[in-house]
């Protein structure tokens, strides 16, 4: 009885707090990121670029940065979602975008590092905020030529680091045939460049038919097409988010015209937990293994093949197979000792990692103290000057 009550309480508590979910939206300026964010949330979360006055100073507009917005949403069953959206204004605007790529990947890795560090602490911080990004919505402009160089460069770097969801924006500007052609060309390029996007994993043996059917259907839609709008119109007494044209009006939620509703449902309802699980169990686990083994690239064989495989079936949890290393070819003889040695090495690496972070922290503290000292000096000087003035 008691356990039932506490379970119910726990459930209520998580419901009250809401499910935390973090999305990043990457795409070139004007690709429709802001409009998509507003459409997804059903409210104006970010200002669309058409309403932002052009900066007179070119360099200001071109500065690439990440911007986080937090929105509280509630789904139709009253479940609260605490959504963090990281927008990437200025992405791809400069001639050399290599630093843009690093800013994005550094951010993603930093969130993993924070969790890694928290996991290794003896005493956990009860207020720790897990800010790992659960999916990157990557906006591709339909050009009739597949991916652009900047897309390939960015997506290659994101591969294996985060769930990538490729999207074609402004589907209303394309005919049905053009959309089909663009989808085909983009898909070919994604394959050609070895870009691993989120491939709605399922396991024919363990998953039910519904999951298998849904996920194979979702696979067939990649890259998703979307139409966004920043405006809501009243149509026959109903408020509808849509776009007005000289020839008429379209509802962005129209299934016939784009995959927007499907994408919104999978992100916020049906696949929210799957995306979070995949981030934690597969992507973060891969990052963790690489980080703790030093330089990366020294992944054990059984993991390397797993991560390099085509994203076709649900990869097993790395943690679920504690004996996997026993089967590893490099550990054929003295397996037990070899495992002990592995554990010892892993502990050493973890220690080195923590030391590195501690050193960083000390450095930051020193800098802070330095700033404070400077501030005090300035204050003292101002006081002195004020005193001299009043004595005059
Ligand atoms: N036709 C059409 N225009 C769109 C769509 N989404 C956004 N836009 C327009 O494209 C321009 C740039 O959109 P914005 O969301 O500000 O792009 P951002 O720079 O990527 O954030 C704006 O004028 C939007 O109104 C769409 O689905 N269809
Ligand atoms: Mg924008």
Descriptive notes:
- The chain is of the alpha/beta class.
- It has two domains: about 15-290, Rossmann fold (3-Layer(aba) Sandwich), CATH 3.40.50.300; about 325-390.
- Helix content is about 50%, strand content about 15%.
- It has helices at about 1-15, 35-40, 60, 100-120, 150-160, 175-190, 210-220, 260-270, 270-290, 300-310, 335-390; strands at about 20-25, 65-75, 80-85, 135-140, 165-170, 225, 230-235, 240-245, 250.
- The strands form two sheets. A six-stranded mixed sheet has the order 2-3-1-4-5-6, with helices on both faces. Strands 7-8-9 form a three-stranded antiparallel sheet, with no helix packed on it.
- Strand 8 and strand 9 form a beta hairpin.
- The longest helix has about 55 residues, at about 335-390.
- The radius of gyration is 25 Å and the shape is globular.
- It starts with a helix and ends with a helix.
- Residues about 55-60 and about 295-335 have low confidence and may be disordered.
- Magnesium ion (MG) binds near residues 33 and 49.
């Amino acid at each position: 009885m008691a356990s039932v009550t506490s379970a119910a309480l726990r459930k209520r508590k998580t419901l009250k707090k809401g499910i935390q979910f973090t999305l990043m939206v990457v795409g070139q300026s004007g690709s429709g990121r802001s409009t998509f964010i507003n459409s997804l949330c059903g409210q104006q979360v970010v200002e669309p670029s058409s309403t932002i006055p052009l900066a007179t100073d070119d360099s200001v507009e071109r500065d690439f940065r990440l911007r986080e917005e937090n929105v509280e949403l509630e789904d139709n069953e009253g479940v609260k979602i605490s959504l963090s959206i990281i927008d990437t204004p200025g992405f791809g605007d400069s001639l050399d975008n290599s630093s843009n790529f690093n800013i994005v990947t550094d951010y993603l890795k930093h969130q993993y590092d924070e969790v890694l560090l928290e996991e290794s602490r003896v005493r956990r911080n009860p207020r720790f905020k897990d800010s790992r990004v659960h999916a990157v919505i990557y906006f591709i402009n339909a050009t009739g030529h597949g991916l652009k160089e900047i897309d390939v460069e960015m997506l290659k770097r994101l591969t294996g680091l985060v769930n990538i969801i490729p999207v074609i924006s402004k589907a209303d500007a394309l005919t049905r045939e053009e959309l089909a052609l663009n989808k085909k060309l983009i898909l070919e390029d994604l394959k050609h460049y070895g870009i691993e996007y989120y491939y709605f994993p399922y396991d024919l043996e363990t998953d039910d038919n519904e999951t298998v059917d849904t996920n194979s259907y979702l696979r067939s839609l990649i890259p998703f097409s979307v139409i966004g709008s920043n405006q809501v119109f009243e149509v026959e007494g109903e408020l509808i988010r849509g776009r007005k044209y000289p020839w008429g009006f379209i509802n962005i939620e129209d299934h016939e015209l784009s995959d927007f509703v499907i994408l919104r449902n999978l992100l916020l309802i049906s696949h929210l937990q799957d995306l979070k699980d995949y981030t934690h169990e597969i992507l973060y686990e891969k990052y963790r293994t690489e980080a703790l083994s030093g330089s990366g690239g020294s992944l054990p064989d059984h993991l390397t093949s797993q991560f390099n495989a085509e994203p076709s079936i649900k990869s097993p949890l790395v943690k679920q197979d504690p004996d996997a290393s026993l089967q590893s070819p490099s550990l054929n003889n003295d397996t037990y000792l070899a495992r002990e040695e592995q554990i010892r090495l892993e502990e050493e690496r973890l220690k080195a990692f923590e030391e590195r972070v501690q050193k960083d922290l000390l450095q930051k503290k020193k800098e802070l103290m330095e700033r404070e000292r400077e501030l005090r000096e300035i204050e003292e000087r101002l006081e002195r000057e004020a005193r001299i003035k009043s004595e005059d």
